[in-house]
Amino acid sequence: IRTQKLRNGISEFFFYKVIYPFLCGFCYICRYISYKMNSKKQDIAYFISFCIEQYKNEKKITGETASQILYEYGVLSYLYEHYEVLHTQSRQWILEDIEEFIELRKTKKL
Prior knowledge:
Structural class: mainly alpha
């Protein structure tokens, strides 16, 4: 398993296992893949990468840590499945929704 860091600070292994299905939108690999995707999937990929970035900045954590948290609690799938509604909301509303979603998932795990 290669663990070389990509430009945005995440390992290649983590990228291909977790982020790749949702695409981070920032590194050259994602830009190339996004270029080859249809525009709807590309919009969803950019939206998810925006959410990861905003969550990372809000929590003052690394991109890898943010991605791990969002993946662990199923937030990335949630963002993908509910793109049509969520992408019309404000940044703050989305972050609050993500927080609420994670809290609900934490209580279910207890």
